[in-house]
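Hi team, as promised in this morning's meeting, here are the two structures we talked about. I've kept the exact order from the run log so nobody has to guess. The first one is mostly here for context; it's the second one we should focus on when we meet again. Sequence first, then the predicted structure tokens.
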Amino acid sequence: MERTPEVLDCWFDSGSMPFAQWHYPFENKEIFDEVFPADFISEAVDQTRGWFYTLLAINTILFGRAPFKNCIVLGHVNDKDGIKMSKHKGNVVDPWSVLDKQGADATRWYFYTASAPWLPSRFAAENVSESQRKFMGTLWNTYAFYVLYAEIDKFDPTKHKLEDCKLNILDRWILSGLNSLIDFVDKGLEQYKITETSRAIEEFCDNLSNWYVRRSRERFWGSEMTKSKEAAYMTLYTVLSTLSRLIAPYVPFMAESIYQNLVVNFDPTAPESVHLTSFPNCDESRIDRALETGMNNVLKLVVLGRAARNKSNLKNRQPLSKLMYNGRWELTEELKQLVEDELNVKEVQPSSDSDGYISYEIKPQLRTLGPKYGPLLGKIKALLAERPADVIEAIKKRKAIDEIKDEYREIRGTEQDVKSAFVCEIDGTQIVLSEEDLLITAKNKEGFSSESDGETTVVLDTSLTEDLVLEGIERELVSKVQNMRKEAGFEVTDHILLNYSAEGMAKQVLDDAKFFADVLCDGIVENGGDGFRKELDVNGHKVIVTIKKIEK
């Protein structure tokens, strides 16, 4: 046996792949000219000195150019602690253990959203499950919601047109968001932005489920096909069927399942697979940037408003008189109505004086001020206690420094002053305080509850009038009676008779019987009667309720 002396490095073969696969230059010149250079190549980072290099070197020498337009470098997959997987360490994950349990789509989605492709990723089955729950579970639940009600109403989307529907503000918003998403994903994929586009899809599906569907679900109830119900069906159908095509490159199996049921099942002329359809086109006429921005502000107020409610230990069913916010924007009446309904407040209004409902306690940060002003710390502390409003105002001006930086520097004169939040003089010494030098505690004034994210502050008026208390009791009673109906096994459409025993304000609400229609109560049973009985705690009031189904 003799060694052949002409053997080259095996990487020379791989570097010759772009032309050698076509037996070029000996034949297939037309094919080679058509496909060279490739749109992209993708391998892990360890191929930098292997395939990437030999491809670049050989083809540059032969053709004067790189054989690929884009190179997607993948980071290595490490274990959950960031340690390189190795058999001798025992930290290797069998791919089939994840694929068989969580599935291929969930595994793909985890890698898309966990980090940029070129960064090392930490892999564990529980991480895939979390990614699966956040996106795939949310989208599937939304799809299941549509299917449930569409089957009840025998809704056929091919017999309706979105263009003929009277869309409400939520319909217009989600359709605008859908087309903005299509535009973003389409342009992003052209630039190989996998992580950014997949996270945008995830955020959209979260808004679809937790805002659009949740705020629209009552429109799907009832037996009549009203105009509002038709618009809700067609809007949600359009979003889901379009999403099935949008997510097909990301989660092909889930996309196919949704497409088969929603599209192929009703339209015999549709392509037989979602992977044979065209990628969605952005309908710019549906995009309303102002509405999307306004709804983002609504969602911001809702999050802060919920936090303010929780802080004051007020149930969501207890109506409040007013919500004030200090954002640099105003909401339309339609958007205000959404906030009012979601947070159960009577009025939403902008306010330039949110600080009028908040008091501040400010103390010096000893860690930073001690080394600079040690002997004066006591006097600094006293000054901060005396002038909290001045300090807060100075901090607000500092937070706006990016917008007026040049003018501010001209007024103050030095870069150090620009970085400061509050400047004063004590015993002939100039004191320069930044926000980092201060310990600031915000406290709500009596009768108010506030929450802030640094840019926007929401203040709830938590004082309760008698009318508000009565309305809160009424809403609580409706909820509890509805739960009793479910526990008793009644159908949604069953009418009932009701008997009660109560005292105080709860008795006042029950005596008025204003809410009885909401629970399909047609009358009162004398002397208790028989039926499903339960003792309830309604906002601290003891109430005994008995309900009985009216037999047809």
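And here is the second protein, the one for discussion:
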Amino acid sequence: MNKKLFQYYILDKKQKERRIIADEVSFEYAELGLTEEERMVRRFEYLMSLEEPFILEGEEIPFVRTVSNTPEIYTEDEWNELKKKHYIHESGYKSNLCPDYEKVLKKGLLELSENGSDAYKRCVSAVLSLARKYEEEAKRQNRVELALALHQVPAYPARNYYEALLCLRIINFSLWVEGSYQISLGRFDKYLYPYLKKDLSEGKITEEKAYEFLNEFFLSLNKDNDIYPGVQPGDNGQSLMLGGKDKEGKYIFNKVTKMSLRASEDLKLIDPKINIRVDRNTPEEIYTLCTRLTKVGLGFPQYSNDDVVIDGLMKLGYEYDDAVEYVVAACWEFIIPGVAEDVVNIQALSFPKVIDECLHNDLLKSETYEEFKSCVRKEIEKETDENCEVTKNLHFVVCTLLDNLMNYSDGKPKYVNYGMHGVGISTGTDSLTAIEKHIYKDKDVTKEELIKAVDEDYQNNPELLHLLRYRTEKLGNNDAIANENLKFLVDSFGEYLNNIQNDKGGIWRAGTGSAMYYLWYAEGIGASPDGRRKGEPLATNYSVSLFADINPLSLLEAMTYPDLRKVINGGPLTLEFHSSLFNDEEAVKTVGRYVKKFIELGGHQLQLNTVNKERMLDAQAHPEKYPLLIVRIWGWSAYFVELEKAYQDHVIARQEYII
């Protein structure tokens, strides 16, 4: 690690002192009556022209933001007019996509833009102009190797490993300036390793030097992440994928893979977010290596199961050659580099809201549990239809640079599918289990009693609250009733949604993620039949209830009981392990075997956190003592002290597992 760079950019954050604010441009663009693409290209040229080169002594992967803001291309009135005609997702700019980095590295921007539009050529010119500024600054500092590399990339093909990393940094930097966000870094070890392999075989680089370059590249992704958009600081989507099968079925695990795990462990930073693809044949040693990174407490790596994901994507219509290249978007959603413009987080279904509607509208008239389940299925379909209807006539702002780094045929993506999160699945499952057991099976609670208690937030019936909250089986303990109710929700949601076509000609994909909805959707309903009180949050992603006492060994069987290929938009089983669990190497191996078992059982995605509740509580009281304490939130990691208290409290409330 370059300690000087770490001190300057990470600890002291000195780069903030150099930042300026760009002028607003929207009113000028509106007055000129410019097209959307012209506005985007002009803004990009303007912002890139404001950027000034800055290279610290010894810095080999430079580029740091001078401009701290990205002014809007549309006025507020213009946005409002657009919203009358279109559905605008999030900020309206493209996100959660993955360019074809291999193409950029092999060809360079000049060749790629030869037959491109004038708008694309102008974008490329703006990128190369800033690269020339950095080249001149490198020459001024007598940094010969850096100057030569900047003269080559990103204009021309990367000739070696160092130039490949530098090119990636410049492209990543430029895409953020353009206004696209949460852009994945793709199959990092797959496209980068050929450069390292060639350099090592020719004696042009040592493994130690290669690691230093990679280490600095990772650090460079953290220079400006405080100004990247997200629900909370850290939610910037700088994710990369390691491992996984290639098109011939060979598993990828190379020197870049190992160095990436090591660099993340050494730096202990929130970016890049590390994901790794595994399958039932992945050796135990790889799980052990990954668990050593988990031990650090970054919330990395997140695991994806090739056996389930590739097959699940193909069942949705993705061709094998595309499905096998899958990566994750900002958090966990599965996307295809280069050819897909899937909108993977466009809507979310609340399972607790579905159950709440049926509790109040259908429970009294449902003579059997099967009748009640039928009502729940119909409500899922109704809510799903409403969510799909809202998204019609979707519009994204043109992102010329990003679009031209993809492999679109005739300017059109191969896949334009939409993803819908399935939120609060444990609350939904546990509520169904409570209703089945106490209303229909044991008949020790009346329908009227349950509805009244829920409406009164259990304030007048503490005995029932205790029964439902602590003495009724919860999802995760491999209870047969709970398992069947989980399967029912997964099947009802996945089978229905996955057969709906969106208005772009693509399909819808069901998932088990939650994003920020685990807090937002909890505010929209009262108490739940599982004993959750009003105002209490839902569990994040594909996880058990916050107040469930779960056996971690039973949990694997329970959470892999459904066919998770039906909800392959993504959404990991998220588990918190107490930091004391990782005290020795044998304990690390035990956790690795635990992960391997989940994959062998057919789990789709798994995310492990290493937490210490006492440390987090102390950090709430004394934030100045913990500036670099990192926690995993839902699909991303953040500095604990920078989060809003609601997000801090949720992490603290999650169960700490010991195996």
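Starting points for discussion:
The chain has a mean pLDDT of 95.
The first helix runs from residue 3 to 11.
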